[in-house]
Amino acid sequence: MTILVCRPSPDAEALAEQLGLAGCRAIAHPLLTTGAGREFTDVPAKLGALHTGDAVVAVSPNAVSYATDALRQAGKNWPNNISYFAVGRRTAGVLAGATGQMVISPSELQTSEGLLVLPELADMQGKGVVILRGNGGRDMIAQTLSARGAQVDYCECYQRIWLSNDLSSECNQCTHWASLRLLSPAGSSWLTSSTM
To answer: What is the pTM of this model?
Structure first.
């Protein structure tokens, strides 16, 4: 079996390498990249408007990286009087490194659902929350925290950008096109998400 890894670079290459070390044949072929989002320049103002006891929720490492870049470009720092939350361990690590603050994240279920069962997010009455994210995505976190009394503001600090791709160049690396099993849905296996 050959696995076609379509995540953005450099994650696609890193996952393909990990799969290779595990004995799987993998081809890294990113289908999208990332760039500054439509609210990239708003990051400093949105974070600066938060008060003691308010919160930031980061949904991905990309959101943290782009928010950090926006703050750096504006000559600002991450606030130190608020709570920081992340959906998964990897995002929590990136956010802790960027902010120098403790970051709360789910230890078991590293999803929006896992984040929302954290006791620290149970009573959000009157608290401000900025959700750092890319374009699109689910609204579950915002809807739930709003229902719990929070004033939620999205900050689209990055965007996903589809690349123009020619899969034939990657498929030429295969002995046979059929080895990718892209033409035979009955024989196909799809990995739709992973944590790295």
So the answer is: 0.79
